[in-house]
Amino acid sequence: MSELKNKIGLLRKASKTFLWISTVLMLAGTVALYFYTKKILQGEAEEELYSTEARIEDALASGRELFSLPPVMEIVREPSNGFEILKDTVIYDPSQDEMELFRELSTYRDINGQIYKITVRSLIVETEDILMAIVLSYVIILLLAFLFLYYFNSRANERLWMPFFHNLNQMKGFQVTSKTPLELKESNILEFSELSEQIRLWTDKVRADYENLKQFTEDVSHEIQTPLAIIQAKIENLINDEKLDQGQYEDLTSLQKDIQRLAQLNKRLTLLTKIDNQQFINAEHIHLVDCLEKSIDDFREISTIEIDFIKKDDIIANMDSYLANVLFSNLISNAIRHSPHGTGVHIVMKDGIFSISNHGHAPLKYPEKLFNRFYRESAGTKSTGLGLAIVKKICDMYGFGILYRFKDSIHIFEVDFRGTL
Amino acid sequence: MKYLIAEDETALQQSIATYLERDGNVCEVASDYTEAAYKVDLYDYDVIVLDINLISGSGLDVLKKLKAENKKTGVIIISANNSLDDKLEGLDLGADDYITKPFHLAELNSRIKAVLRRGKFGGEETIIFNEIKMDTRSRTVYINNKMISLTRKEFDLLLFFMTNKDKVLSKEIIAEHLWGDHSDLLDNFDFIYVHINNLRKKLTNEGAKYIKTAYGSGYKFMEEQ
């Protein structure tokens, strides 16, 4: 799951890309517009300065006496010629009563033998304002356009991908054990349609395979019972024949033990299948302490391993009484089986949690496989290898939490009947 | 006693018959539904050992037929299916007991005897062997009319021995009878030793020395020779 945290949703990803591109385009557009408009406005202002200057020149040439009009225009007679200068300058504007930025053109003109220095200025503020107005309205229009686009784009994407998300959710809810068919949404988009078709094919196949496998397990364990019964019956008749020697008897009783193991294995496989098939539907309120005490008494009868039981409070669970029995019995039997000689099994029932612990020399090598069918840590034990798998199934079925840990040379199993572990 | 073994697997059918006949019982066999239905119709049996899955029909139908004719026959169902539903259906239809394959013949025999006891003595369920008398209802044992006290397990053990007298009972069979599924947890049979030795002592104290050792590790409940 932790990997999923780093993932981004398809729609968000699309929106994000859209937003990024929009932002970059908008910024670039604004900057370009700013400089371009500025250049045009500046050109306009300069053109105006030159034309004013030309008019003044004409007026001077025609002999009219011109007066200065600072800061907009100043005409001064000069003794010598100079260079034409075009620049920005800050001077005091009496009409505004503050320092203002002007564009200034000063030229020297030789008119009728007299050199004049003609200076014309134009207020830059005006062009700045126009520039800002243009850029601002551009940005606003662009922003609105992007917002609308973003909104419609997102909606359109959602609609476009809807069948995909619907089918994805259906697949998330897919259970191989359930018989309800997947409700896949049809789409007129070719790829989605193909995807649905493949999902349908695969899930049908998975379910069919699972059913077959389950049926097979059921059939096999069923079919094995009768031959086992025959072997067992024949052995018993052989034992009662008077012609056996000691060695033959030992062999035959050892066979009886093996048959019992097979029968046990069968019984548990069938039980697993039954839990899978949801055949235990008789849930009732069970006082787990009573059930547990009965189970502990049974085990005390046949095991030298000490079992101590600390009962803090009773738990009432809503479950099948037979399965409650199996749950405790399998966990206790597992603990006893793996207790080193001379140690004990400790059971505590407290705060809705049943915990059972036994001593052990080392932690499990593959604790994650603990609840797998036929997983055995050591080859020596004669268990069926199904006990804990059944425990896990029962817990899963009722939503009880189950936890295993190894601490200070002790194996601990905990079942949380409130399902919070 | 007269038994009918309705079981389509001939090998199993014959084995059961062989075992039960050792006690001097008469065993008839039926290999399919038709034969079973026919024999049940025609003859009276004390107990029928009835397989649910007969080739041409269900054992449960034989049972229905039997009950419809109001016959006082004890019925023990044997089934390869250890599902509770089958068991309940069988018992609902009036079967006296239900046993799942594979089973020990000694176990089947002791169940048959239990059915017979309940049927024959109308509530007073007693089983007698020489000076030993067991009352299975009140769970008391008398030797020469003197009550002896036995633990629960010792009582079950004695009952198992007495219903399977003259049979070799291996520890595996005894363990499964006493502790059922849990018996696979026994890594040695010390527990059985303890129970059997205690029982033996209590019986021997009263002069009843019937529990013999067979093949070193098995047991046989039999008349003193």
Question: What are the salient characteristics of this protein?
Answer:
heterodimer, A: 421 residues, alpha+beta, Helix Hairpins, Heat Shock Protein 90, 3 domains, five-stranded mixed sheet, four-stranded antiparallel sheet, 8 helices, 55% helix, rod-shaped, B: 225 residues, alpha/beta, Rossmann fold, Arc Repressor Mutant, subunit A, 2 domains, five-stranded parallel sheet, globular
Category by helix and strand content of chain A: alpha+beta
What amount of the residues of chain A lies in strands?
15-25%
CATH class of the largest domain in chain B: Alpha Beta
Supply the number of helical segments of chain B: 8
User: How far apart are the termini of chain A?
Assistant: 18 Å
Instruction: Give Rg of chain B in angstroms.
Output: 18 Å
From the 3D coordinates, which CATH architecture of the largest domain in chain A would you assign? 2-Layer Sandwich
CATH architecture of the largest domain in chain B: 3-Layer(aba) Sandwich
Strand order of the largest sheet of chain B: 2-1-3-6-7
How would you name the oligomeric state of the polypeptide chains in this document? heterodimer
Q: Helicity level of chain B, as a percent range?
A: 40-55%
Give the overall form of chain B: globular
Structural class of chain B: alpha/beta
CATH homologous superfamily heading of the largest domain in chain B: Response regulator
CATH superfamily label of the largest domain in chain A: Histidine kinase-like ATPase, C-terminal domain
